[in-house]
Amino acid sequence: MTEQSVHIDVTNELLAIRRHLHEYPELGFKEVKTTEYLAGLLQAHGITVLDTALDTGLVAEIKGDNPGPRIALRADIDGLPVCERSGVDRPSKNAGVMHACGHDIHMTGLLAAAFWLAEHTDRIRGSVVILFQPAEETSEGAQHVIKVGALGQIDGIVGTHNNPDYAPGQVAVGVEPMMAGCVRFHVTFNADGTHGAYPEAGTGPMEAMASTILALQGIVSRNVSPFRPVVLSVTEVHGGDVWNVIPAHAGFMGTVRYFYQDDGDLVARRFREVVESTAAAYGITADIVYDTVAGPLVSDAHLAQDVARDVPDYAELAPIKPSMAGEDFYNYGELAPMVFAFIGSNGQPGHHGLHNPEFVALDGAIKPTAQFYANAALRLGEQLGRS
């Protein structure tokens, strides 16, 4: 345990900040006013905002009084293209945009941690980097932050995501996979179109598409252990415009989710084999786009165990309930060891999930979010400062 675990009170200022952020959500890479607002708050608390190549989002730094590593804390800042129906007192004022994933909680919690750390630099070994990341919802933000070098050299990084399946005061962190690897696929079959009355004159793609979609459903059930969760979902089909014409092209889109990379590799290989062989059997060709949007999110084992041991001093340590959703935080693993946590944000019977227009994240999530960030920063500073 650190010399003394951090306990942070949720002030009226923080509650007002959360209300403001919830009322004015902005979409990925368009978070201009959000960025300006966050920068102003940090500077008002004496925290240095760094000059980076980011157009939206920002990086700030709090230097400690003691030598040590450079630890980053990340919160995502973008909203979703969702019309809010949550029933909260102060809903979104930006039509068609909502913090339906609770990023307003993430931002408020990280601000609270930053404010505390700035007042207790004697507790910091090295420095703490505050990252407010754009465009998490598009799965492009973390890659952009890395590409432009906004973080510089870091020795460890901490992230969180609120989770409405947990109650406020619960924190889940550990060594198990937390969020799934995510693939986005798009298949197009290329054939010869013809009149619907003369199918023998063409090589229509519809039958190949239907057969392929059915065959793909056997990949998971007949290739992956039932003890290793994998999902393959076809979510959209397209082909044809006219009732009496067999089209020349048809296709489908969808996603794959997995927790272990070898399962992801297996599905990728079998996916291509099924699509290509089925297309060949029908005498046509297929174009395949198979993009990895996010890899499985797994915390560094040693650091996660160290951080988890501190949690019971300021929150309830809860078991990890893995999520099939993706999270671009995994990208930061190429820069430094990472630790990620779920923070309870609702837990009430009948609550709505993330990305739902009726989603509600409770204010009670702010305090454990802030305390997790601050305590994890101090723990990583201590542990990585020894290596």
If you had to describe this structure to a student in words, what would you say it looks like?
With 387 residues, the chain is α/β, with parallel strands linked by helices. The chain contains eight helices and 14 strands. It has helices at 12-23, 32-44, 103-119, 141-147, 206-223, 261-281, 301-310, 366-385; strands at residues 48-49, 58-63, 66-76, 125-133, 156-163, 170-172, 181-190, 194-195, 230-239, 245-246, 249-258, 285-294, 316-317, 338-344. The strands form three sheets. Strands 1-2-4-3-5-14-6-13 form an eight-stranded mixed sheet, with helices on both faces. It has a four-stranded antiparallel sheet with strand order 9-11-7-12, with helices on one face. Strand 1 and strand 2 (58-63) form a beta hairpin. The two termini are 17 Å apart.
